[in-house]
Fold each of these.
Amino acid sequence: MAVMSDADRASVWAQWMRENTEPCGITKPDLLAAAVALDVFLNDNAGAVNAAIPQPARGILTNAQKARLLSLVALQRYGAGV
């Protein structure tokens, strides 16, 4: 899977700005750079993420389902107070 398009990255960036309720002092360009860096990281490490999922889930879940699960785990783990 390739990295997201610029439009998709901008969509993530805009959604974060709409939903973030805590002041953080980051500039818009720096926030976009963070979104791009995370997209690249996930793209570069997709194989490791997939390999971390045990069978039979790895073989049964779709990529979209795995992404949703990853998202929920990350939010639960790091999103306390969100």
Amino acid sequence: MPGLYLLAILASIAGVGLLARRFLPGVLSPRLARPVLAVLLAFLAFDWIGASRGWFATNTDWVVAYWPPGIPPEEPLLLAFLALFSVVLFEAFRRRGRRDA
């Protein structure tokens, strides 16, 4: 099922985006691109080093393809999702704490 992992990541990105747009207006803005890009580049560098040294392995049954040294194209999407989800979750807790105080 090579496309299932990719589909799950895309559905997760869409779901978090819809929830953030509905319940946290203003979070999804062009300003969000900088932290997501910074996290993406840092973790992709770590993945690149880990894959080239053999620390990480790619199961070819679950990914669409993989780029040498073994990073699947789903990896940047997953890392971008994790950064997006972290920012949205942080903002949700920050706004809730401000509202409760």
Amino acid sequence: MENVTEQTNESSLAKGIMGALLGAALGVGAMFGFYTLAGFRFPLLGVGIGILTGFGGKLLFKGGDSKLAVICSAIALTAVAVTLYLMYHEIPILSIISIVVSASLAYRIASN
């Protein structure tokens, strides 16, 4: 019976990670799309990536989990940093605020 519970948790964690990746991809698309269409760089849109990453992970995991929250936070941090690099060809020092807030929001959303 214990093995079934462990397999279910692993399966749910895999789904949660997939949800986090999908949420991050949606957020990156929105942020980079806004930059491409408007020609205006707005780094605080990275916060949206964190929200979508945490929410996507929590939605497919069907609940919150601390392990999932750490993974979502890492995914959001990476996604925002890469997107900012694509937009600026560097990571501006002030944009670190957006990266940190994004990662913390993803963690907070996915852990509850």
